[in-house]
Amino acid sequence: MKGVETRDWIKDGLKAMAAGLLAVVLAVLNFPLFVLFLLSLVLTPVLGIGLFLLPAVTALIRLRADAARRVAAWHGVAIARPYRPKPAGTAPIGWGRYKQIITDPATWRDFAWLLPGAVAGLVLGILTLALPAYGVEGIVLLPLWIYLAEGWSGYGVNWPIENVGEGFLSIPQGVVFLILGIAVAPYLRRFDAQFARLFLAPTRAAELRLRVDQLTVTRADTVDAQAAELRRIERDLHDGAQARLVSLGMTIGLAEELVDRDPDTARKLMAEARETSSTALVELRHLVRGIHPPVLAERGLDGAVRALALTSRIPTTVDSDVAGRLETPVESAAYFAIAEALTNVQRHSAATFAYVSMHRTGDLLRLEVGDDGRGGADSKRGTGLAGMERRLAAFDGTMSVSSPPGGPTIVTMELPCASSSPRTMLSSGTD
């Protein structure tokens, strides 16, 4: 375990150093963007040049800010995009677009971040690289220099090295600085990300506006999903149980006509009617399971998911600390999302092993479904993953997919949740 923790610590440090180098490169871009933005404002009264220049410069600044947001996300600092959407029918260039840009508070917050963000990125990025670089110099370069000094001294070349023994003391000092640099690098990058968040994150008003926009979208998706579900139920009833029940009524009616004239045929028709009724009952049960599985109502999310794992064609393990019952809609959304994910594993992954992890922290339910298959899953190309995302979004849930070519695939879902009331728990049949 210690070896794994050490490798993770070193890997995190090396990733932070690479991010520090990227931060230095990106920070340099802030200076020309700052100048271009000022220039586009100044040139607005001059033949209206700014009307054409400002939208292009703003697009570049927002690309740069989005890059900073992505880099911050690597270090666990989430920064939402606060920009107002372009009104429908607005031309990409012109007075309407110009006015929409300069009246968006996020435009000025991006502009205010350019210079401080550049300074912070350069200073913290260089510091991220300087500490481990100084350690490497002490370990490698100075001893090499001393070695060369000894080798060339026989040829009359004098090097500024007075005490070779003291020079080699730089090695343990270099090791200390290298370890310190690798250990501190993630914290320096996180501090830089938090600094960027002060400028680039939405204000309270922008957060409320984004929240309204998100609720509008999720409400529309939920209404569409409910309409599609109703159509599916109606179709299944019409094509399945309803057709069989109509056939059952006709068969019984025919048997009633033949019961006196041809008792043997009537008995055969009644036997056929009994089989039809059994088939219709099975189809109704399957339909009910598709709406709300009885196992979910009886055993809760933990038991229902374990039952799913037992019926999976691929060996599937379940790790769960979800005790008690959750609100019924949340349980149902989580269950069907996991069921869809496991179905995708069986159909598309060519995996030999899968797992489900369910953990609850406070009022947040975290679900994870993974497999050792061939990877390549993409929510933008698959209706199953997109449907899962819409189902979770209706409850303010989120979903992320990590599925590089060659695997593994990991689907992570988070859902706000709360425990059911005691009355709900008792009515659901739990102890």
UniProtKB/TrEMBL annotation:
InterPro entries: HATPase_C_sf, HATPase_dom, Put_sensor_dom, Sensor_HK_TwoCompSys, Sig_transdc_His_kin_sub3_dim/P. The chain crosses the membrane at residues 12-31, 37-61, 119-148, 168-188. It comes from the Bacteria. This is histidine kinase. One of its GO terms (molecular function) is kinase activity. It holds the Pfam family HATPase_c. Keywords: ATP-binding, Kinase, Membrane, Nucleotide-binding, Phosphoprotein, Transferase, Transmembrane, Transmembrane helix, Two-component regulatory system. Its EC number is 2.7.13.3. It comes from Paractinoplanes pyxinae. Residues 21-200 form the Putative sensor domain. Residues 229-296 form the Signal transduction histidine kinase subgroup 3 dimerisation and phosphoacceptor domain.
